[in-house]
Design goal:
single chain; 656 residues; Rossmann fold; Zinc Finger, Delta Prime, domain 3; five-stranded parallel beta sheet
């Protein structure tokens, strides 16, 4: 008697023998018990997971003679069951649809389906690889499948159910088979080698299950090879299984990843040369690397004992050691590179070169810095404030140093100094610390050495403090985000000018405004700051209305009485204007306040101020932009101390 391969010798003959498809076998058994069997079934799924086997078991259950009706479990001893198991049953016709796919074959099947079974209850057609049938043949079968005779049952097995027309699928019950679990395959293999009285290592069985890739039949086929390769009475080892499947030794994968972690490109190339010289396939090695990197990534995220890792105990130790060398971002980047390399090897001519290129990319990727860290460094450099050292006035004064240093604003006080001393923790550093990657120490060093943010909210241009005795700071125009940030930010934005120091004796002034610090009472400073903020926000009508009003501070409210009607007030005070006014007032008073505008009040005409009122009135004051710049105290001090000269004055209000 000829040898029968394990996949056929131990083919399940009952529903209870099928492993990994409980959702299918349970449903079919319940349908048989309740007498609710259908006339058409579609069994789809991965190769070698039991689709045709379940179809044969169902056919045996339908025609089993152990009872006068279909049985939930075939007996396996009656004439019908034995003939179906041998494959020579008269009323169970198994057709290979890959070769009998034309319309003529389907017409013959349709004609034969009209006749009753010769002996059994049902005439059953099992169409294997049903997706190979042509569209014309499916159309010829459509009417028979929609209204079949009572004695006909169709079973279609396919690996590509999407290729079957929807009209056919809608007339059948569709069962989707799952890939067999890794542990189920290992358990089945261990049971079979015990029956065959063959010794096998657990790691060897795990490799067989992994090589099967969810297919029980593939794992049994490789087991047959492993048994044949071992000497009589020999033991199946992991190395013998690796040689059979053409896999590279496991330690080679670990050594390649260690070389990549060191950035040793030459060691990587030596390993590839060693593998190619021994006859290993670049495509197969790339596939191994993809699996290995995936397992290392899972071990990094979920730990080596996670159920997501379907590998042997020895392999778990290897992936844990590799996972300790890289961070989560590094492993995902390496996996992406190797996936792309594996895809390219399928259609590239020089496979070795592309494999080497992919591994070198992984080695070079170790030298890359995350974009978050680069952005953090740039932000820290842009927020640093350059210090202009000045030893004496005149034309020979030195310019700003190449590397900026932090200088606290003279108006911000001790709170700004304490804020500047506090290091800013970047999002990259926080995320790296949370994940515990290998770059955590480098990220901590970067955080410790990063420059603190300036109190102006990280502007693109640094704040320049001219000398140590400057009466007021000079900053860039304040934006809305800075106005509502803090009182210090509001006070630093009061002088809304752009001073570009090209040389101590050559100072360009693009816009200079009066300093609020020079005004008198707090209510005057408050009014000047609010009107200035509204003027900068292009709220001219509201500025003229509030300028003529009476201002008062009552608790946490800034009350402004105006003579205009409530309708005019509602039209003039929009959400943006209210936000600007509240932010400016809160900055001056140092606390959160509310804005209340009382309409229809009797208000006396106020006197013109030299501060923000005169500035907000613009052209009505009769003083041009150059005149206001020349009268400003800051500009005068700069002219006296540095010999600066006003060359250009740009008044942005006049341009609006």
């Amino acid at each position: 008697m000829s040898y029968t391969v394990l996949a056929r010798k131990y083919r399940p003959q009952k529903f209870s023998d099928v492993i990994g498809q409980e959702h299918v076998t349970r449903t079919l058994q319940n349908a048989l018990e309740q007498g609710r069997t259908a006339h058409g079934y579609i069994f789809s799924g991965h190769r070698g997971i039991g689709k045709t086997t379940v179809a044969r078991i169902l056919a045996a259950a339908l025609n089993c003679r152990s009872s006068d009706k279909p049985s939930a479990e075939p007996c396996g001893i009656c004439e019908s069951c034995t003939e179906i198991r041998a494959g020579n049953a008269v009323d169970v016709i198994e057709i290979d649809a890959a070769t009998n796919r034309g319309i003529d074959e389907i017409r013959e099947l349709r004609e034969a389906a009209r006749y009753k079974p010769a002996r059994d209850r049902f005439k059953i057609y099992i169409l294997d690889e049903a997706h190979q049938i042509t569209d014309a043949a499916f159309n010829a079968l459509l009417k028979t499948l929609e209204e079949p005779p009572d004695h006909i049952v169709f079973m279609l097995a396919t690996t590509q159910p999407e290729d079957i027309p929807q009209t056919i699928r809608s007339r059948c019950q569709h069962f989707s088979f799952r890939a067999v679990k890794f542990d189920d395959i290992v358990g089945q293999l261990r049971d079979l080698v015990g029956r065959e009285k063959i010794e096998a290592d657990d790691d060897a069985l795990a490799l067989l299950a992994e090589a099967g890739d969810g297919s029980m039949r593939d794992a049994l086929s490789i087991l047959d090879q492993a048994i044949a390769s071992a000497s009589a009475g020999g033991r199946i080892t992991a190395d013998s299984v690796r040689n059979l499947v053409g896999a590279a030794p496991a330690h080679v994968l670990e050594e390649v990843m260690q070389a990549i972690s060191r950035g040793a490109s030459e060691d990587v190339l030596r390993q590839v040369d060693h593998l190619i010289s021994e006859g290993h396939s670049p495509t197969h090695f790339a596939r191994q690397m993809v699996r290995f990197l995936r397992n290392a990534t899972v071990a990094k995220i979920a730990g080596k004992d996670s159920f997501l890792l379907q590998i042997s105990s020895e392999e778990r130790e290897r992936v844990e050691r590799v996972a300790a060398l890289f961070g989560e971002e590094d492993l995902t980047r390496h996996l992406q590179i190797m996936l792309r390399t594996h895809g390219e090897l399928g259609y590239k001519q020089e496979q070795r070169f592309h494999l080497e290129l992919g591994l070198l990319k992984m080695a070079h990727a170790q030298r890359l810095l995350p974009i978050e860290q680069l952005l953090t460094d740039v932000a820290g450099a842009s927020n640093a404030v350059p210090k202009l050292s000045q030893t004496s006035g005149g034309a020979g004064a030195p310019r700003t140093s190449a590397r900026p240093s932090i200088v606290p604003s003279p108006l911000s006080g001790a709170s700004d100094t304490r804020r500047a001393e506090t290091n800013h923790v970047s999002p990259f550093a926080a995320d790296s610390a949370r994940k515990g990657g290998p770059r955590q120490e480098a990220a901590a060093d970067q955080v410790a050495g990063s420059a603190p943010r300036s109190t102006t909210g990280g502007s693109a241009q640094p704040r320049v403090v001219m000398g140590s005795a400057a009466p007021a700071n000079v900053s860039e125009p304040a934006t809305e985000s800075r106005i509502s940030a803090s009182p210090e930010v509001q006070r630093s934005a009061e002088v809304n000018s752009q001073l570009v120091p090209q040389a101590p004796a050559d100072l360009q002034v693009s816009k200079v405004q009066p300093s609020i610090a020079a005004t008198g009472a707090p209510i005057d400073r408050l009014q000047a700051a609010v009107l200035q903020a509204l003027a900068d926000g292009n709220q001219r009508i509201l500025v003229s209305m509030l300028e003529a009003g009476e201002w008062a501070v009552e608790g946490n409210e800034v009350v402004i009485k105006v003579s205009e009607s409530q309708t005019v007030v509602d039209m003039s005070v929009g959400p943006e204007a209210r936000r600007l006014a509240i932010a400016s007032a809160s900055g001056i008073l140092g606390r959160a306040v509310k804005l209340k505008i009382v309409a229809g009040a009797n208000v006396a005409a106020p006197e013109k101020r030299n501060g923000a009122s005169a500035k907000s009135s613009g052209a009505n004051s009769g003083v041009g932009g150059r005149g206001r710049a020349e009268q400003d105290a800051v500009v005068r001090r700069l002219q006296e101390k540095f010999g600066a000269e006003i060359r250009t004055v740009i008044d942005y209000k006049e341009k609006r």
